[in-house]
Amino acid sequence: MTLLATATEVTKTFKTGALEVHALRGVDLAVHARDFMALVGPSGSGKTTLLNLLGALDRPTSGEVEVLGKKLGALSKAARAKLRLASLGFVFQAYNLVPVLTAAENVELILELQGMGARERRARALDVLLSLGLGELANRRPNEMSGGQQQRVAVARAVASRPELVLADEPTANLDGKSAEQLMLLMRRLHEEHGTTFVFSTHDPRIVAHATRIVSMEDGRIVSDETKDRASAA
Fold first, then answer.
1. Are 29 and 6 in contact (CB under 8 A)?
2. What is the reported pLDDT for 165?
3. Over the stretch 8-39, which tens digit does the pLDDT of each residue have?
4. In Å, what is the CA distance from 33 to each residue of 105, 124, 163, 191, 196?
5. Gap between the Cα atoms of 3 and 186, Å rounded
6. Strands 3-16 vs 19-32: parallel, antiparallel or unpaired
7. CB-hemisphere CA count at 13 Å for 169?
8. Domains present along the chain, CATH in parentheses
9. Which end of the chain is more exposed for a tag (fewer CB within 10 A), N or C?
């Protein structure tokens, strides 16, 4: 299997005054191409911290994180930003859509930052929205969409640049049951049809039901790593 990312003996300690919080304690993890992985565990177990390290959003206190063949500890802040822009997609719990932009313009944003020309990026954005059943939202701004619609547009933005790895932090946390299921079906379709690799940080059983690999965390450690047969996932 092709390795997309690895964490080797990774620790992460946060300091607040005299208080130290050990968020990760010697974590080893390998993310393979075509994984549809859920990092699960209670609040404070370290799953979001690990996701941030895999996404080059933070640095470990010790240990090594490698993403797409690059050792993140050896990269400058600018180089890590370039890696995120070129090869990673992010879906956040809070959607993070730009309120003054339409859905199409929000999807175009990453493409513009990558240097894609205006005509090509508009065509790509509309194509992605249409392919994901979101064409009717193209000219709506976030305040004209439901929470579920905003999160689906956030997924479209994350995948429009065709990243090798998409990292999603609690993507269903603010959604009702129907919207959450629609979102999971959307991401699973991207995974199955385009081979997109997804890693989720979650405590939502709806995501776990769809995941084909479940990595459980407690107290900053991985306590189990199970792979399900694709046919058995919801």
1. yes
2. 96
3. 999 999 998 888 999 999 999 999 999 999 99
4. 29, 24, 12, 10, 8
5. 24
6. antiparallel
7. 19
8. 3-96+157-232 (3.40.50.300)
9. N
